[in-house]
Specification:
This protein is an all-alpha fold. It has a domain of 60 residues. The protein is elongated, with a radius of gyration of 26 Å. 0% of the residues are buried. The model has no long low-confidence stretch (mean pLDDT 81). Keywords: Membrane, Transmembrane, Transmembrane helix.
């Protein structure tokens, strides 16, 4: 099960990185620039910036989930049944 999740996560990362790089290429072309001016794969920052962006997105998603769970009202205990009082 874990291997299947890792496989799907890996495929998702590859697809998203491909879409992001394609988008950068398209924007650079629309701006009349060479793509090599935007992205140079020989520098370390070429990989760290997208990885940092993905980490920030994951942290934001995690924080949103935690905040949503924390902000929900606490469940109240069920009301106690009324006890009958007998007159003596």
């Amino acid at each position: 099960m874990a291997a299947a999740c890792d496989w799907v996560a890996g495929q998702t990362v590859v697809v998203c990185m491909g879409l992001g790089l394609g988008w950068e290429w398209w924007l650079a072309r629309a701006a009349g620039m060479k793509w090599s001016q935007v992205r140079n794969f020989r520098r370390l920052s070429s990989g760290t910036v997208p990885a940092g962006t993905a980490l920030v997105a994951a942290a934001t998603a995690f924080a949103t989930t935690v905040a949503g769970t924390w902000a929900q009202p606490a469940p109240e205990p069920p009301p106690r049944p009324a006890t009958a009082v007998s007159a003596k």
